[in-house]
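Methods: example folding runs. The two proteins below were folded one after another, and each record is reproduced exactly as written to the output file, sequence line first and structure-token line second.
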Amino acid sequence: QVHLVESGGGLVQPGGSLRLSCAASGFTFSSYGMSWYRQAPGKEREWVAYITHGGRNTNYAESVKGRFAISRDNAKKTLYLQMNSLKPDDTAVYYCQYSGYWGQGTQVTVSS
């Protein structure tokens, strides 16, 4: 049974940083690319970043490029999202995703 459990969200001031984690189980984590998505209040869920199974290649939405970094530790079966220079527009519930499976999400609020 696939489980994805996000953590690391919270309240941060504009310009601050957070690191999200996604603990994966129930599948061969090291064999699959993984993504982060987010959903802001009243908006559709949007893709944020993707990383290949080995971690060598990454892609980012234009809105986060240069500020966010996706990474993974296949030995720990964990996906990460380092978020720097956070803006109020980054406020959303952040989800990790694999092949149609979603975690429960972690809330990120950027506010002074």
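Second run, written to the same file directly after the first:
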Amino acid sequence: QVQLVESGGGLVQPGGSLKLSCAASGFTFSSYWMYWVRQAPGKGLEWVSVISANGSTSYYADSVKGRFTISRDNPKNTLYLQMNSLQPEDTAVYYCDAPRIGRGQGTQVTVSS
């Protein structure tokens, strides 16, 4: 069955960095554009970034552009999100998402001093 398992979240101080990973299985990962989305406390789901199936194209929300980098390793069926210069407003549960396939259970990122 389809599985998307995020990891790498945690507590970090403002200005710090984290790298999230999403291990995918149960579908042909290399055929799908993949997304990172997030949900802050009390808010709706927000799109963060997307990467093409072969990794050659990526897009970012204005709120994270220049600070976050999405990447993927298709032989390892893994999606990544490198997050630098983290700010308190980046605090959220981060999910990897494969449209029409599924979404992971999420990993908590908390940015606080």
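Comment on the second run: The first strand starts at residue 3 and ends at 7.
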